[in-house]
Amino acid sequence: MKDEPRLIFINNIQKYGENIYSEPKRFENLLKDIFGNKYQKEIKCLSASIKEGIPATLSEKKETIPYDMLSSQLIQKLVINQGYEKNLAKSPTNMYDIALKIIKLFYFNNFILIN
Predict the structure, then answer these.
(1) Does the pTM of the predicted model rise above 0.90?
(2) Which of 37, 81, 89, 100 has the fewest CB atoms found within 10 Å of its own CB?
(3) What backbone phi and psi angles, to 5 degrees, belong to 105?
């Protein structure tokens, strides 16, 4: 996913908090309102990640499971349960990580770097 929609998504999660992703269909409709006909595959993957409990798991287990291990498990969950390619499945997990302030987002020469 490109940087612009990624930042819009992250800002909306931070703005509306947990309520925004507690209802997958409502969340999907909000993303469709924001992005229109763009990024349909990514929107479906983000919605599927809610159904799979990705944001809730990140919030609950961020203190008990090392980030790399937890992230890898959740990406694999989207790949196996929802049939997404690994690269596409990484996107929602990374965006929730940033939005929930589990990892930090940095800018370097107009590129987004994840720490």
Answers:
(1) no
(2) 37
(3) -110, 130
